[in-house]
Amino acid sequence: MSPLKIKKGSSKHSAYNLRPNFSDVQETHTLAVIVDNEPGVLARVIGLFSGRGYNIDSLTVAEVDHTGHTSRITIVTTGTPQVIEQIKAQLGRIVPVHEVHDLTVEGPSVERELALLKVQGEGDKRVEALRLADIFRANAVDSTLNSFVFEITGAPDKIDAFAELMRPLGLVEMARTGVAALPRGV
Amino acid sequence: MTRQMTGAKMVVQALRDQGVDVVFGYPGGAVLPIYDEIFQQNDIRHILVRHEQGAVHAAEGYARSTGKPGVVLVTSGPGATNAVTGMTDALMDSIPLVVLTGQVPTFMIGNDAFQEADTVGITRPCTKHNWLVSDTARLADTIHQAFHVATSGRPGPVLIDIPKDVQFASADYIPPQKARISHYQPQTKGDTRAITDLVAAMETAKRPIFYTGGGVINSGPEATRLLRELVDATGIPTTSTLMGLGAYPANGPHWLGMLGMHGLYEANMAMHDCDLMINIGARFDDRITGRVDAFSPDSVKAHIDIDPSSINKVIRADIPIVGDIATVLAELLEIWTARGRKVNREAIGKWTAKIAEWKKVDCLKFTQKGGVIKPQYALQRLEALTRDHDRYICTEVGQHQMWAAQYLGFNDPNRWMTSGGLGTMGYGFPASIGVQIAHPEALVINVAGEASWLMNMQEMGTAMQYRLPVKQFILNNERLGMVRQWQELLHGERYSSSWSESLPDFVKLAEAFGAKGIICKDPVDLDDAIMEMLAHDGPVIFDCLVEKHENCFPMIPSGEPHNKMLLGEVSTKDAIKAGGAVLV
Hints:
heterodimer; A: alpha+beta; Alpha-Beta Plaits; 2 domains; 5-stranded antiparallel beta sheet; 4 helices; B: alpha/beta; Rossmann fold; 6-stranded parallel beta sheet; about 40% helix; flavin adenine dinucleotide binding (chain B)
């Protein structure tokens, strides 16, 4: 007997949304988790990932509603569809978690990350670094006679590309914030 | 009108307002103000255990046998860390507990103060939720929230860490009806479309089976009643996990017995060959599924569970239903009735006939011969001599636990207390104390192995102090039986550290505590000895010397599917392949 042909539902409370394909393909998803900003809430989320062996590619967190004391945690994670569904279900049952959104499946979204890159060099390399920064719309936020600190905002791919170009030009140090993301439209 | 009171008084008032009548605990420096308040009132009874682990297991026994949350009160540092095993056990088996721990004063937290431990940090992964209360004004509200979280949705243990200065300071008491409404409100109503799909599948299924679990019992008496109504009206054969025993009665006409690694042959074969599996409140644990890729290969699987994370965790559900068992079963019965209460009677008749053939294998048969008691025989006699009593059974963990599940019959829910998910040796004795506290007139038996029992034997002091007539029925094989069985099957009969050396004389041990001890070695004396145990009005340690190298069968070897069961002492050699040997 073959499995029943059941149409995938879309109502918010339907467990049909939980039906994965059980494929082996690794997918990267961006999750937005709205939580009470209370002590230990980040430890709960991180502990869930480490305790159950899930991946965290990137994680950002900050209070987004100062009156309601809620924070938004943006997590980029990689796993099979089954694992991604488990992560969402497990996050959803943490008591201070209000909402879990999978921005990757809920429609188009904007993802941005901020990075600071320190590039050391003189002469032609210094000029080339500045020229590339201009192309990438990166700003020099600190400058000495033999170094720059560039500030760049963009999708993680863009920052990766910029960092790759800066490497031979004297990249010595880099700091990244991790991804912040919002769905497009309303 | 608000009432000012100290944090310590607030704890007692909040427990009273939550309907708590008993607390299991052990005092210490950081909870002395609360103990002082307990001393000055009579509404809440405090049961002094002999070790904090015992307090948590006793509260679990209380909770499982009543359906109410168990409450624990222990001190900071070692008090809290000793409670960790019990909380992990309760988390795995979905038992509602509220654990209150003392903490060093807020201004000393982080200074490595005497008896300080990061209790909320340590217990974060072993509780459903926990709180460190740093302000007395938030204390009562937090306790009310804690009861809500522990008992709603999938139940579980919660912990509240209360620094000593918070216990001394005063603030307004907030009663439960004025507590903050928690946003934690798990969905209880199932998706009607999915339930309708399940009804449609039930109407046409040729080889359906109900596979029920602890969720039915956790959902409450209404869930049990509806399950029985559904099973009896449809005639669909029913099996259960270890945790779910008693939801459908063992003497019911459609009962297959327990399934899983040491489940009954007919139950496992039916699971493997069914065409519609209806999982009600179970979670496809690895003790149940065996090899996942060969688990019930030809069936449509429906899964009803209140916890969305249980669905599709291990086995893909074709018909997933998130909701409370009682609520979902009520709607299921309603829809099934509205559609004319149809099932494929003819096909189910054939299916039942097939199952009857499997039953003829008689997988639990054994032969009691010679002068040594077989453990199965001991349990068979215990069942025969106690089945008509108002009886509650606890167990420790190991072979005796599986034999108890196989040979004892459970006709009602909340009568069977055993550590399923975590497999905690030392669970049963303190659990039996909690059960006896909740049911003073009932017969409470802890079926134990001698090694497990010794892990929390200090609780004899508790049993004596509160005159709890708990019966400790120890199947003594002088071995860590299940470990030894695995060493026999997997490790070339090299019995590494799996025997019980230097055992106490259990009769003298009982007498040392002022209890009664009985030893039984000969099968001929067994019935009289059990009757003597039942007749004694007080705690009894029953030392039943049994066959030392008896193995627990049937058994699904690790890494094998349900239809590859080992039935007995026949060629068990090399039954577990290299791939299975890494599994536990």
